Amino acid sequence: MHMHKYEKWWLLIGGGTLILFLSIIGVSAFAMGHTPPSDHMTINPAKVDETAPFNEPGLKKIGENEYELVMVSQAFSFTPNDIQIPKGATVHFKVTSKDVVHGFAIANTNVNMMITPGHINSITHTFDEAGSYLILCNEYCGAGHQVMSAKIEVS
Ligand code: CUA
């Protein structure tokens, strides 16, 4: 079917507008999908020191050989950075960042997460083997990235 030149132009503009519209919707949906599911998972990174439980970082016994370990990461350290736990302990880590994105990986375990400012990151691990476990930042976070670490002693 024959079409006048200007009719084709209108079709192109209409199609272009539709694509633009769909991509805006798509981008919004994508952004919404990456919003944390609930408020207790978020934290104001500027107020970490005054927000529970991060106002008192450290190890807390919550059951039979079960602990909650609240840790704060910032360039270029973890607080606390020297932790002692009994062999066989199950540890529920809760970690946030006061500044930039850091990594949180425990050598010789499958613990490996990204610590994003504004978010509370949780992971649980049971330490069945005694030994010294190194917590490493495995996300590049600046000049002191290589020295950013902490230690867990399991005995
Ligand atoms: Cu913190 Cu790399």
From TrEMBL:
<dbReference type="InterPro" id="IPR008972">
    <property type="entry name" value="Cupredoxin"/>
</dbReference>
<dbReference type="InterPro" id="IPR051403">
    <property type="entry name" value="NosZ/Cyto_c_oxidase_sub2"/>
</dbReference>
<dbReference type="InterPro" id="IPR002429">
    <property type="entry name" value="CcO_II-like_C"/>
</dbReference>
<dbReference type="InterPro" id="IPR001505">
    <property type="entry name" value="Copper_CuA"/>
</dbReference>
<dbReference type="InterPro" id="IPR034214">
    <property type="entry name" value="Ba3_CcO_II_C"/>
</dbReference>
<comment type="function">
    <text>Subunits I and II form the functional core of the enzyme complex. Electrons originating in cytochrome c are transferred via heme a and Cu(A) to the binuclear center formed by heme a3 and Cu(B).</text>
</comment>
<keyword id="KW-0186">Copper</keyword>
<keyword id="KW-0479">Metal-binding</keyword>
<protein>
    <recommendedName>
        <fullName>Cytochrome aa3 subunit 2</fullName>
    </recommendedName>
</protein>
<dbReference type="Pfam" id="PF00116">
    <property type="entry name" value="COX2"/>
</dbReference>
<feature type="domain" description="Cytochrome oxidase subunit II copper A binding">
    <location>
        <begin position="49"/>
        <end position="155"/>
    </location>
</feature>
